[in-house]
Design brief:
The complex is a heterodimer of chains A (52) and B (225). Chain A contains 1 helix and no strands. With 52 residues, chain A is mainly α. The termini of chain A are far apart. Chain B is an all-alpha fold. Chain B has one domain. Chain B starts with a helix and ends with a helix. In chain B, 81% of the residues lie in helices and 0% in strands. In chain B, helix 2 packs antiparallel against helix 3. Classes of the chains: A mainly alpha (52), B mainly alpha (225). Chains A and B meet through helix 1 of A and helix 2, helix 3 and helix 9 of B.
């Protein structure tokens, strides 16, 4: 393979995948936050139903 | 079932990507003027196509929401916009790195780059607007209108290299006929795994939107006690 501009090609591929990986990480962290919030609210509703 | 479909699609995307990377790096011939950097095109262009497809899907879903007032269309539009934005940013950044080598500058204010940047900023604004409005139906209505308005920029991005000829961005390689057939084939072949990944991201985001609606309903229930 022609080695001219190889470093920039590497940066390009790295950047493309880093951006998509960062998006996957943000999806995963949102997933955890939503699950925690659903659990918290379900417990709250159950507690209020029992108390009321 | 949903999890299995997502796993299968991710597996297919990974296999195709591995095969494509092998072909891109070890089998395709070199480009005579650009050196190794031309290989960025196999991700740069399919990233743009994926982003445009997502924005188109978001626009159709927004029209359907306004026509039918069903929040599932709003959820789809929000999900497709977010996924499209991720691929759009990947397209813009890879293009900047390519431009740094070929034009010797990171950024040129030519029609293609500027309209793409404006488009991404409008779609980022769409996502910010969604966060700013609490009431779901009001949020869905405003977001749908903005999504339809934002899509007006996509044809401008697409046709900018024909409409404004005195610019730095090269003409579409698919149209010029100057690209070797095996390179052109790889451009389309590498779009498939990116599309599969976009579908997986979309499925995850749709599920998150469903969970968010459940959270909204539970919050209303909590406040009603």
């Amino acid at each position: 393979m022609d080695s001219r501009n190889f470093a920039f090609m590497f940066y390009g591929f790295l950047a493309a995948w880093l951006i998509l990986c960062a998006y996957v990480v943000s999806l995963a962290s949102r997933e955890r936050r939503l699950k925690r919030e659903v659990e918290r609210l379900r417990t709250l509703v159950e507690d209020k139903e029992r108390a009321g | 079932m949903r999890q299995k479909i997502m796993l299968a699609l991710t597996g297919m995307a990974a296999l195709l990507l591995a095969r494509n990377l092998y072909v891109i790096f070890l089998q395709l011939p070199d480009e005579i003027e650009q050196g190794a950097i031309y290989r960025i095109i196999f991700f740069h262009v399919p990233d743009a196509w994926t982003a445009f497809l997502c924005f188109f899907a978001a626009m159709v879903a927004s029209v359907l929401y306004l026509a039918r007032q069903d929040l599932k269309y709003d959820a789809f539009a929000a999900s497709a916009t977010e996924v499209g934005l991720a691929f759009g940013v990947a397209n813009l950044v890879t293009g900047m790195i390519w431009g740094r080598v070929i034009w010797n500058i990171w950024w040129a204010w030519d029609a293609r780059l500027t309209t793409m940047l404006v488009g991404l900023l409008i779609y980022a604004g769409y996502l910010m607007l969604r966060r700013a409005i609490e009431e779901p139906t009001e949020r869905a209505k405003m977001a749908a209108v903005l999504s339809i308005f934002a899509f007006a920029d996509v044809p401008v991005i697409f046709f900018s290299i024909r409409w404004w000829r005195n610019q730095q961005h090269p003409n579409a390689v698919v149209e010029t006929g100057k690209m070797a057939p095996e390179m052109l084939r790889m451009l389309f072949t590498n779009w498939i795994p990116l599309l599969l990944l976009a579908v997986v991201f979309l499925m995850i985001r749709m599920e998150q939107e469903r969970t968010q609606r459940e959270i909204d309903a539970l919050r209303r229930q909590v406040h009603s006690f």
